Amino acid sequence: MTTFNMDTVVQKNIISKIFAFFTKRVVYHGIFWFLFLVTLMLRDDNQLGFGLSLILEIVTVFFYAVIVYFNLLYLVPNYLNDKNFLYYCLFLVLSVLVLIPIRVFIQYFLLSDFPIIQNGIVSTINVVFLVTFIVAGFSTILKIISDWVKYQRDRRELQTQNMQSELKFLKSQINPHFLFNTLNNLYALTLKKSDKAPEIVIKLSEMMRYMLYECNEKRVLLSKEVSYIRNYLDLERLRQGKNVNIDFKIKGHVTDQKIAPLMFIPFLENSFKHGLNNQISQGYVTINMEINEKTVDFFIENSKAEKLPAIEHRRSGGIGLVNVRRRLNLLYPNHYNLDIKDNPNTYTVNLKLDLNV
Question: What pLDDT, in 10s, does the model give residues 84-106?
Answer without folding.
Answer: 888 888 998 999 999 999 999 99
